[in-house]
Amino acid sequence: MQTDSVAARPRFFDHVAATRADARAELCRTLLEPTASIPPKFFYDRLGSALFSAITELPEYYPTRTEAAIIAAHRDAIAHRVGRGATLIDLGAGDCRKAASLLDVLAPAQYVAVDISSAFVSQALDALQRQHPALETVGVGTDFAEALWLPDAVRAAGRTFFYPGSSIGNFAPSDACAFLARLRAQAGADGGLLIGVDLVKAVAVLEAAYDDPLGVTAAFNLNVLRNVNALIGTDFDVAGWAHVARFDPAASRIEMHLEARRACELRWPGGARSFAAGERIHTENSYKYTAESFTALLADAGWAATQHWIDPRGWFALVHAVPRAGSAAGPVPA
């Protein structure tokens, strides 16, 4: 009995600590750019991950429940496209709930939960393993935005990357193409991609989803300052900043910013910057696509879309893609 219990535990590989110096250098650089910014991957410390989970419960935040409804309505068709026995690699796994809704129909040979918030995803994977004791599970704490590090424990055969929730919108289109090409290189000839995409819709709907009246999204955005304080020793006063979200129709993206309520001087070991009242730090973009524009993006990255599942309102799409015939399968630059 003891041996079975040990065998059923997830294997977890924490690669975040190995890249901590790179993260510090990146933050110091982006804070000193002409328009200061904080990359959105730094939202996801333990508290940030919990706040995002709360955001998904808000009535204004439609992507999570719309995508969940698509999955519920098309589970069998999704399973037919993906196939049983895949290596299911869940990017930005968070609490693992989205993948959990498909495990019974996909019956993967291995489930791999990947997230930058190591502690949060490790805890979630432990809970998932208890619910699926026979499933082989692997957890990976890593920043996959620039280069996806996977340990040797991750099976090479039948890799299907699961990237739900429209997080692909956090990348500028050129960066999204490069990211998807890197996934294509790691998928192999028998791999696949199952990805959530937020679609263009009314501006009022979009802006409410990123600026809810309860203020949960504002707390999520402001918490990034606390995380940066912990990571590089800045002295952000969270109370001195305000959440701002707006839709830019020319770029087809939601932009999130933090705006200084008053002039302040920010300091950290080895650096400093002054902010005027009203000056902003750019924290996130969320690009919105049409089905046609996203299909074209996939093709540029070496993928062929085989199926779009779209909700009745046309707000969200779940797309399955396979390596495009003739596209390169070898390594691509990180």
Topology (SSEs and partners):
Elements: H1 2-7, E1 11-14, H2 20-31, H3 46-55, H4 62-73, H5 75-82, E2 87-91, H6 97-100, H7 103-106, E3 110-115, H8 118-131, E4 137-141, E5 159-163, H9 173-187, E6 192-198, H10 203-209, H11 216-232, E7 241-248, E8 253-260, E9 264-268, E10 271-275, E11 280-287, H12 291-300, E12 303-310, E13 316-323
Parallel strand pairs: 1-4, 2-3, 2-5, 3-4, 5-6
Antiparallel strand pairs: 6-13, 7-8, 8-11, 9-10, 12-13
Describe the structure.
By secondary structure, the chain is of the alpha/beta class. The protein has one domain (26-322): Vaccinia Virus protein VP39 (Rossmann fold, 3-Layer(aba) Sandwich), CATH 3.40.50.150. Helices cover 36% and strands 25% of the residues. The strands form three sheets. The chain has an eight-stranded mixed β-sheet, with helices on both faces. Strand 9 (264-268) and strand 10 (271-275) form a beta hairpin. Helix 3 (46-55) packs antiparallel against helix 11 (216-232). The protein starts with a helix and ends in an 11-residue tail after the last strand. The model is unreliable at 1-7 and 329-334 (pLDDT under 50).
Number of helices: 12
Overall helicity: 25-40%
**Percent of sequence in beta strands:** 15-25%
**SS content category:** alpha/beta
CATH topology: Rossmann fold
- The oligomerization state is single chain
Report the uncertain regions.
1-7, 329-334
Q: What is the number of domains? A: 1
Write the element-wise H/E pattern from the N-terminal end onward: HEHHHHEHHEHEEHEHHEEEEEHEE
Superfamily (CATH H level) name: Vaccinia Virus protein VP39
Main sheet strand line-up: 1-4-3-2-5-6-13-12
